[in-house]
Design goal:
It contains twelve helices and ten strands. It has about 300 residues and is an alpha/beta fold. The strands form two sheets. Strands 7-6-5-8-9-10 form a six-stranded parallel sheet, sandwiched between helices. The longest helix is centred in the C-terminal third of the chain and has 19 residues. The model has no long low-confidence stretch (mean pLDDT about 95).
Amino acid sequence: MADKVRKILFNENIDIIHAHAAVPGMVGIIARSGIKKYIPVVQTMHGWGTNKRTEHEKMDVTIMNGLDKIVSVSKSDKELMISKGIDKNKIITIYNGIEDTSDYDLNEDEVVTDIILHKYHGYTILGCIGSVCQRKNQQLLIEAINNISKNIKIYISFIGEGDIVNKLQQKVHLYGLEDNVKFYGYKKNASKYIKLFDYFVFTSLSEGFSIALLEGLREKIPIIASDIPTFCECIENNITGYLFKNNKVDSLQLLIENLINNNKNDFVTSNGYKKFGKEFTLEKMMQKYSELYKNIMNIKM
């Protein structure tokens, strides 16, 4: 593989190698050897996997310390990498960015029909998009809703596949919440549904830098999120969204009840949208990467 990459580097007169994982970064380091000009290797670290073996972790740290620059997609990721032994001087944080407008058509389907029907009957719509799994912790939302008075009408749309869907559906049946909760499975371009939600909910125990959360800010939909570090970089409680204590069902329950009974969302959605425009657009991300490339080339020239 390194030989093939080296040929490309030579034939195409490449100036920078940009990898998106440690092993490809290592291939870049090997491939650039034997070429007269110095070719910097940059890696974007999209998240530190929680299931790495000790040997795997040590290998990644060794590789990344041999890179010219490492891009973390959140400040909390940067701190984690430093704690693992990666040279802090090699790390720069560049947030993920998305287009500042969405262009998905919202054609009527079962998700749209169900949400509109429940809105008509006075339900508050809570939406979750993403893999249904232990890490995403969707069961916490079901537990919270079960503890809320049945006089408060709430409908939850879970969009996404996962290995605990059946388990959660059984819990929904046990609690008698079939009219309040539905799992829709995988939907293409699921972010198109965000604009239908009254609240966009993130219950994750851990998370990389969430694109879906940025999409919620862009659509001016109030965010409810666990207070894990990556979410706290986007959400300032009661300023750009709403935070509850991670994995604490009573904290989530109380927050939902207070929000439904005292709807004051315009302030946070306006601030959230301003923060999105200032820090999380695709244009802003590309500008930061362009600056990185220019700086690293000036250093090596």
